[in-house]
Amino acid sequence: MFESFNCAGLYIAVQAVLALAASWTSSKVTDRSLTGTVIDSGDGVTHVIPVAEGYVIGSAIKNVPLAGRDITSFIQTMLRERGERDTSLRTAERIKQEFCYVCPDIVKEFNKFDSHPDMFAKYMVETVSQRKIEVDVGYERFLAPEIFFNPEIASSDFLTPLPTIVDQCIQASPIDVRKNLYKNIVLSGGSTMFKDFGRRLQRDLKGLVNERVHSSEKRSGTKSSGVQVQVISHKRQKNAVWFGGSLLAQTGEFRGYCHTKRDYEEYGPNIVRSFSLFNAV
């Protein structure tokens, strides 16, 4: 960076920490904490990353082999099976972005579509020859994002729902930070942008946590104060990592944390190892 781009200063941060910082713009966040669980889902993979006081708990990170690309592929398969006139990857991608959402109950959603045909949508595709093709958009509107919560719909290799993965991630973290990890679950990446994604995740995860709490109360015979489960959604979550970095870079103390070109010339490339968050990766 110093030799090729002649940058004035360099600071290496962890993506999950920057995503946590981006969540500070949400009205749900009252404490600018760097402790929380980050669900980062882009095109190729989904990561569940616990962070305590700005340090990643590496041993508890979970990877989910489902993300935006799988949702697009699922939509494309449904279009092909239905015999639509345009089943290109580009069309499937646009349908995913414009029409898909997360529903609270897929059985009830099927019934809604069957009872109200107006819930089916039309997508107009313009071909290279500038002809317009009409593509029907049906059950894939809610079925495609459902693979996060019922992965068996799309895969026989990975069958664990995302809420269960998040619960396992937090339970694998040190006991003294678990409550704060449940209380501050932050979404990051384009594949978390589906309508009601955060609401469904919070509901399903809260169900898992409450079940464990009730079971513990039954065994011990005591009453628990419960565990608060909160999923933070905000307008910037698609580009949360970049936005979080932008927020931190605007703080007055940021320059003091950067390494300068003079530092690099004096100490060499090993200066990057002195970053505390860098060491926590």
Structure, explained:
By secondary structure, the chain is an alpha+beta fold. It folds into two domains: 7-65 and 158-279, Nucleotidyltransferase, domain 5; 68-148, ATPase, substrate binding domain, subdomain 4 (Actin, Chain A, domain 4, Alpha-Beta Complex). The protein contains 13 helices and ten strands. The protein has helices spanning 2-5, 15-22, 68-82, 89-99, 106-115, 140-143, 162-171, 178-183, 197-220, 240-249, 254-257, 261-267, 276-279, and strands at residues 9-10, 36-41, 46-52, 55-56, 62-64, 121-126, 132-137, 185-188, 231-232, 259-260. Strands 2, 3, 4, 5, 8 and 9 form a six-stranded mixed sheet that branches. A two-stranded antiparallel sheet has the order 1-10. It has a two-stranded antiparallel sheet with strand order 6-7. A hairpin with a 5-residue loop joins strand 6 and strand 7 (132-137). The longest helix has 24 residues, at 197-220. The radius of gyration is 22 Å and the shape is flat.
